[in-house]
Input
Amino acid sequence: MDTYTLVNIVYLLAAVVFVLGLRLVRHPETARKGNQIVALGMASAVVATLMDTRIERLEYILAGLAIGGLGGLRFARRTPAKAHLPVMALFNGLGGLASWLVAWAEFHAHAAGQGLLGGIALWLAAGLGGAAFSGSVTAWAKLEEKIIAARPLAGRQYITRFAALGVLLTGLLFAGDTVAPDAYRYFALLSVFALIVGVLWVAPFANSDLPTAISLLNGCSGLAACAAGFVAENTLLIAAGALVGGIGTALAIAMCRAKKQPAANVLAGGFAASIEQ
Amino acid sequence: METTVLLFLLFILALALFLGFELVSTIPSSQHLSFLSGSIAVSGIVVLAAVLAAGDGDDVASLIGGCAAAFAAFQAVGAYTVNDQMPSAPDKQEEK
Output
């Protein structure tokens, strides 16, 4: 059996494990077990990925995983229970950041031969990842009271919409031709616009509504991972990323319903003039 | 990427997306935050993309990929650890 087959079998099992584990997370008695099962699936997937023949060197991988993993472990151990939500938001943001970095790395190394679809995948990974990052960090800062709520700028929703349009247009220009000399500039521009959208979208949320925002941001980072999966041609990334994307969006809507809020109004966030409830 | 592969992957994407929606529809609102935490841990799957990028032959890409791997590992390990530290019995209204 060649490595490609073996790796993909592990991916298949991991995907099944994710769903089975998440089903357990729905109930308080089995939630912890469910999380452990999902963790096991993820760890197996990482180990299997190391066998991918496209990998040419291990140093950066192992260094990154070790430093990040140990750092995450220490940080998590020292997190008090009441800081649970902001810390989760921060984690989501880092995932978005990772997606953006991956898009940048892949674009830098393999700009040629991406084609339009490859360009679109890079664009989505960078744009969604960047927005998820800045939005999540903003949510974290609001919850940890690191930002003081200033008086909202009149008409700021236009800035948000303009930035979103910016992501769209620069993204299309970028995806259209990833080898053009301007491509790097478009990549940088779409990244900046994405960061702005993230911050401004989250900014008007009341702290009590931030779980809803964080849930949608989780959906974003999931879809960013999914897009990265298209860039890397990795089935598990696509499946798990889309799964999280669906969960994040559905959960955000469910949270609005549970609080008897109109989902469309709340989820518009910084795109709307004010959040009516 | 050839069309057949692309279509196949889009098929998986669509099903996974709907699966996510369906999973959430069965969750009581008291478990929303707990499930959100679980989902954030799963989005650590991006570590796979980071591993592949960090293993690239190109020096710059590998370095950037290494950083991505660090952040992704921080997220994955951190989120799973925090989730594991959550009390297994539900606290009464203690979610602030």
Observations:
- The helical segments of chain B are 3-25, 32-42, 46-54, 59-85.
